[in-house]
Design a protein that fits this description.
globular; alpha/beta; 7-stranded mixed β-sheet; Rossmann fold; 6-stranded mixed β-sheet; 2 domains; Transcription Regulator spoIIAA
Length: 299
């Protein structure tokens, strides 16, 4: 039997009230259930474990007035690849694989047919909210994926530079801008290696007042291999070379070997004395088993 914690109706209502319908509704060390708009995704190591959680969805979401139109199963695997994609468990198979979710009034596309994740990471909700509160003018979003941080910043007037080695992710990022009625003017989408492009930006003398460093634990761009444990110092140094005096830098990783205190310790060896580090509280729906660790380096 899967042991874990279902989100309480009170906590769910608190998350939904600002206009949010993408959040975690069940969490345990080895399995979880996420809401994505009208759909639910059960992530587990086996179909048997997933079946048990599927049966619990209706009972445990009735208290906050929501029932999923579709339920998907995603098998948890050590390495993402051909397996681990989304399998429809219940609901209309003729519905499109994409749908729109909301976070604090903003809209984002999720896709259940393009790999191991939907393209939207709800555990970064608090960090996107903090970024919006800073009202940055120029944001650099490295490893930008589908550009959710940039959409959040652009909603308060920021220009953005979005860098990712995958053109397909950046195209989805453009769609996220369009979903929110944000003009593409002032926003760049660059399909290149993030670290190499940051170094070129520094040579041009470009500067930013918010920089997002949220790389994968492991990745590949052309012939170059990225490993967070090895490359984090170079990545942070490159970011610092692009930072305005008032720049806020988000340091984030989903590597299980790092936590927020570890990110801070490593960063103190690189950033100047006097840098203030701030970790946003983990959202309540992820508090028991957060999938990533992050900390802000603030001027």
């Amino acid at each position: 039997m899967t042991t874990g914690r279902w989100l309480s109706p009170e906590a769910a209502q608190g998350i939904m009230s600002p206009g949010t319908d993408a959040f975690r509704i069940f969490q345990s060390p080895g399995a979880w259930v996420d809401r994505f708009g009208g759909s639910a995704v059960v992530s587990a190591k086996s179909a048997g474990e997933a079946s048990e959680l599927c049966r619990g969805i209706s009972e445990n979401t009735a208290g906050f007035g929501w029932q999923p139109a579709r339920v998907f199963f995603r098998e948890l695997v050590k390495q993402s690849g051909g397996v681990g994609c989304f399998e429809l468990v219940s609901g209309d198979p003729n519905m499109p694989p994409t749908q729109t979710v909301r976070e604090d009034g903003l809209r984002f596309e999720v896709n259940f047919s393009t790999g191991y994740n939907t393209g939207f990471f709800a555990d970064q909700r608090a960090n996107r909210k903090l970024l919006r509160s800073r009202c940055a003018k120029r944001v650099l979003n490295t490893f930008a994926h589908t550009c959710s941080f940039s959409v959040a910043a652009a909603s308060t007037g920021a220009a953005s530079t979005n860098v990712d080695s995958a053109k397909a992710f950046l195209e989805r990022g453009r769609r996220n801008f369009s979903l929110n009625g944000i003009s593409m003017e002032g926003h760049r989408f660059v399909a290149e290696d993030s670290l190499a492009y940051m170094r070129r930006l520094a040579k041009r003398g470009e500067r930013f007042d918010a920089i997002i460093l949220d790389p994968p634990t492991f990745g590949r761009s052309g012939r170059r291999e990225f490993r967070f444990d090895r490359d984090f110092p170079d990545l942070l140094r490159a970011a610092w070379d692009l930072a305005e005096e008032s720049c806020a830098i988000l340091l984030s990783t989903n590597s299980s070997a790092w936590d927020a205190s570890g990110l801070e310790r490593a960063s103190r060896e690189i950033l100047p004395a006097g840098t203030v580090f701030h970790a946003e509280p983990v959202p309540v729906d992820f508090s028991a088993h957060p999938p990533s660790s992050s900390v802000w380096a603030l001027p």
